[in-house]
Amino acid sequence: MTTGGIATGHAVSPDSGRHWADEGAWEVAEGIHRIPLPLPMDALKAVNVYAVQGDDGLTLIDGGWSIPVARELLDKSLRSIGSGFGDIKRFLVTHVHRDHFTLATVLGQEYGAEVALGEEERPALELLHRAARAEIGESPFLDVLRTAGAEEIAEQWAAGHDGSLPDAVDWAFPDLWIDGDRTFDIGRRRLDAVHTPGHTPGHYVFADPAEGVLFSGDHVLPTITPSIGFTVPPTDQPLGQFMASLARVRQLPDLRILPAHGPVAPSSYERVDELLAHHETRLDQSLASLRARGPVTALVVARDLGWTRHERAFGELDVFSQGMAAMETKAHLDLLVARGRATAAHLPDGVVYSAI
User: Fold this and answer.
1) Following DSSP, what letter does each residue of 28-77 receive, concatenated?
2) What H or E segment, with its residue span, contains residue 284?
3) How far apart are CA 252 and CA 267, in angstroms?
4) Whether the Cβ atoms of residue 195 and residue 204 lie closer than 8 Å to each other
5) Which domains does the chain have, with CATH numbers?
6) Nearest 5 degrees, angle CA 285-CA 291-CA 297?
């Protein structure tokens, strides 16, 4: 869902003066370069990896998706600033999604760089390893879709799966689990790792108050909202966690946003306020749907809402986006239940919600 500002597909980043996804190693501050790496999907063109120069070598914030074109471009971009894979000392990975984690762990294994990841991502990695050993018969996301009342979408997701299993090399366990908030010393820099669950349970942002920047991962994005509820194993109240984590970021100094997707943006305060307001509006819209329709599943409510910055009807979305929308709507309804504004009944065909 896009909220406010210019569309991601047309956004120019101030560090490059070009489209934010354009190839290069763009200096965002002294000793910090933003390197967009391509993604094999239509919705998001790239993921920003940040190379931070320190006395002991490079620290990379995120690693990108482990595909040949991304690896080649990362190598080329690092060489353009006089570095290479052998100079990488550590990866600080914001969260476990493959466009952030998999190239980091592959390069970490090959070159001996330390890979750090949030402790709360451990269950997801363990689940992926079980899938790689063929111990899981179907995608665990299908059960999440079913609880949202989206059995037909779950069947389409299952039919579209090519049967390939996760590659354990891409999903190796990290060298360091980040547990709680802590500080990383990177030469003259100190990066504050702040636990920000919501998008995923173990998501972290990394703040450099002295430089005035926030490596925000997928937690604070300048032109879009991160997906909520699209995580396995499922967690209780992902939207509540996300909004509480936004409030935590709001307690930090107002920092320049260095996001995983989209252009560099000037104010974490401004964007956090926009994101919180957006979700309050979606909560109101979801409650209005419940009041109009009576006891219904998340899928029914999702069909009442507009999607993307163009407020597209649910039926206009592709089947993958429909599934994401159903799961995110369920996260909003679960928060309404937690706030005492709705009730939930767990039935065989999904969770059914009613307004209070």
Assistant:
1) EETTEEEEEEE-SSSS--EEEEEEEEETTEEEEE-----SHHHHHHHHHH
2) helix 268-293
3) 11
4) yes
5) 8-275 (3.60.15.10), 288-355 (no CATH)
6) 80
Which three-class secondary structure state does DSSP give residue 315?
helix
Strand boundaries in 209-334, DSSP class E: 213-217, 256-259
d(CA 131, CA 324): 21
Q: CA torsion angle for 125, 127, 130, 134 (degrees, to 10)?
A: -120
- For 42-94, the pLDDT digits (tens) are 678 999 999 999 988 999 999 999 999 999 999 999 999 999 999 999 999 99
Res 132: pLDDT = 86
* pLDDT for 33 beyond 50: yes
Q: Name the token pair of 283.
A: 């909560």
Q: How far is Cα 86 from Cα 56, in angstroms, rounded to an integer?
A: 12
At 112, the amino acid letter reads G
307-350 pLDDT, tens digit each: 988 899 999 999 999 999 999 999 999 999 999 999 999 999 89
Distance CA 110, CA 123 (A): 24
Nearest 5°: the CA angle 54, 89, 117 is 110
- Tens of pLDDT along 162-211? 778 889 899 999 999 999 999 999 988 999 999 999 999 999 999 999 99
What pLDDT is recorded for position 79?
98
Angle at 268 between CA 265 and CA 270, to 5 degrees: 90
pLDDT higher than 60, residue 3? no
Q: Which contacts (CB < 8 Å, 24+ apart) does range 24-31 have?
A: 24/77, 24/80, 25/51, 25/77, 25/78, 25/80, 25/81, 28/213, 28/256, 28/258, 28/264, 29/211, 29/212, 29/213, 30/211, 31/189
Helix (H) or strand (E) holding 207: strand 204-208
What pLDDT is recorded for position 2? 47
Question: Rounded to the nearest 10 degrees, how much is the dihedral formed by the CA atoms of 199, 326, 261, 18?
Answer: -160
